[in-house]
Amino acid sequence: MQPKVNLEQLWIVRCFAAVLLFGQVWLRLVQGKTYYRKILEHMVTTGPASISPVLLVNGFAGMIFTIQTARELVRFGAVSTVGGAFALAYCRELAPILTASIIAGQVGSAFAAEIGAMRVTEQIDALHMLKTDPIDYLVVPRVIACSLMMPIMMIFAILVGIIGGAFAAAQFYQIIPEIFLESVRSFLEPSDLSIILLKGFLFGVMVAVIGCSWGLTTKGGAKEVGESATKAVVTTWISIFIMDFVLALVLFEKPVL
Fold first, then answer.
1. Which of 90, 102, 113, 228 has its CA 20 to 30 A from that of 252?
2. Is there a contact between 214 and 235 (Cβ–Cβ < 8 Å)?
3. Could you tell me where this protein is found in the cell (predicted)?
């Protein structure tokens, strides 16, 4: 006998639930329904409480990326373009994805686990009894906090990555920081900063919505809470790469003449 399939646990159903949750969050934002004190609390969780791994990972990633690219560019005598290659690939793509992935693993999983634990212990039902909307109280503040803090975290991550890249270029290839930084400045355009901030906002919304949605749709007990947190992180990572691919096509694709 085949085991009975629980449709509520299917991945596609929960993804559809996440889309519906995003629509509900947007409606609440338009109506101005939110808890501002909870927003500040979650901004601390998403920002200062997560800054250490973000800076460490991006610092070392910046050094690794510079070592690998500089080795090839120096061989062809293109020393002055090391920073430019770093700017185009690392600042535009790698740093935002790394930062969003770290926040998804640390903050998104926490959102899913916290709300999932509340769901299985019937605390969300208690909110209904108190005439408090769980979406207003639990979801909207998390989405606002994550969407505001993610762009800020990306800016810090890029700054630390550039410092790490300049350090690696100077230590291993004798490229003075002035040349490296000038190359970065010449290749990065003001519009790139706007695109990075846009990515931060969109990735922040995705991390919060998916984490909260997976928590709200948790059924069972402690085991299912852990599974929801893990699946929320994996789903967020997949969504981040898909969204980044779409943005790359829309914002950077040039027509062929």
1. 102
2. yes
3. Membrane
Domain ranges of the chain: 20-26+36-245
d(CA 21, CA 16): 9
Positive or negative, the CA dihedral 110, 112, 117, 123 is positive
Residues 6+ apart with CB under 8 A from 195: 92, 247, 251
How do residues 153-199 score in pLDDT, each as one tens digit?
A: 999 999 999 999 999 999 988 888 998 898 888 888 888 889 999 99
Burial 169-196 (b: 16+ CB within 10 A, else e): bbeebebeeebbbebbeebbeeebeebb
pLDDT in tens, 120-146: 998 998 988 888 888 999 999 999 999
Check the CA dihedral 163-168-171-174 and report its sign: negative
